[in-house]
Amino acid sequence: MAATPNRQFKNICVLSRFNYGKHKEFVEAAINLGRSIAERKLHLVYGGGNRGLSKLVSEAAFIRGSQVLGIIPRALKPLGSLTDSPTGVSRLRYARKNN
Q1: Model confidence pLDDT, tens digit, residues 47-65
Q2: Considering its fold, how many domains does the chain have in total?
Q3: In a domain, 5, yes or no
Q4: Contact between 86 and 46 (Cβ < 8 Å)
Q5: For residue 30, what is the domain's CATH number?
């Protein structure tokens, strides 16, 4: 990901499939993506859950120094798969529906 001189990205958002099943190559790719995000000194924004590929990306980026922001719809907060402090998150925010 090469940035042009007059436009550099500081944040990147990652959304991914929740369940990776038997595909170990997806696990490796998610971890490598998180590492690459940190190496490029980017901040990560992701779905905020504590399962699946997004979690792996966030943990790999966070461990290597990236700021990680998890965004969770407020309606999903009561679910057991989402916690108030998933591993690999600098900040967690609950989004509200704008009506």
Answers
A1: 887 778 888 999 999 999 9
A2: 1
A3: no
A4: no
A5: 3.40.50.450
